[in-house]
Write a structure and sequence with these properties.
The structure is a single chain. With 172 residues, the protein is of the alpha+beta class. It has 3 helices and 8 strands. The strands form 2 sheets. Strands 1-4-5-6-8-7 form a 6-stranded mixed sheet, covered by helices on one side. A two-stranded antiparallel ribbon has the order 2-3. A hairpin with a 2-residue loop joins strand 5 and strand 6. The termini are close together. This is Exosome component 5.
């Protein structure tokens, strides 16, 4: 099993960008992923989208501090380290968003009273770090256009994830 964990897996998505529903000027940046780069974490990956790059390490399930223990599921901790300097309010907000997203997919109930830690190091940020949020008034047509763009983008993202996992596990 350790040999399978140490096997390096490189996955590249199609570098072509596809026009979105808003027109030919709207496109997704290419995706790339390299898995099991680091030896210390239980799992690691480098994610790239365009010129944005993030290195991720996952530790656990491991022993949890009593103060953070949840009796019926694993405690999920997310640490986001900026490219330079110390984490600020923006990073803490992003940590919370990422933790909430991960809690929906991590099977924490399988490992109660343990800790799972996700450490993310921003290597470069060219605008693809997280989805943007916005406030304001929009017409129904603008809202439908944004929803269609998000749906199209999510189709490409999930296809990339599916292909990455298939390539990763077909080799071991």
């Amino acid at each position: 099993m350790e040999g399978a964990m140490q096997t390096e897996s490189k996955i590249r998505a199609d570098s072509r960008t596809e026009p979105g529903p808003r027109g030919p000027g709207c496109s997704l940046r290419h995706f790339a992923c390299e898995q099991n780069l680091l030896s210390r974490p239980d799992g690691s990956a480098s994610f790239l989208q365009g010129d944005t790059s993030v290195l991720a390490g996952v530790y656990g399930p491991a022993e949890v501090k009593i103060s953070k223990e949840i009796f019926n599921k694993a405690t999920l901790e997310v640490i986001l380290r900026p490219k330079t300097g110390l984490p600020g309010v923006a990073e803490k907000s992003r940590e919370r968003l990422i933790r909430n997203t991960c809690e929906a997919v991590v099977l924490g109930a399988l490992h109660p009273r343990t800790s799972i830690t996700v450490v993310l190091q921003v290597v470069s940020d060219a605008g693809s770090l997280l989805m943007s949020t916005t406030k304001g008034l929009y017409s129904d047509a603008e809202l439908q256009q944004c929803l269609a763009a998000a749906q199209t983008a999510s189709t490409h993202v999930f296809r990339f994830y599916r292909e990455s996992l298939q390539r990763r596990y077909s080799k071991s």
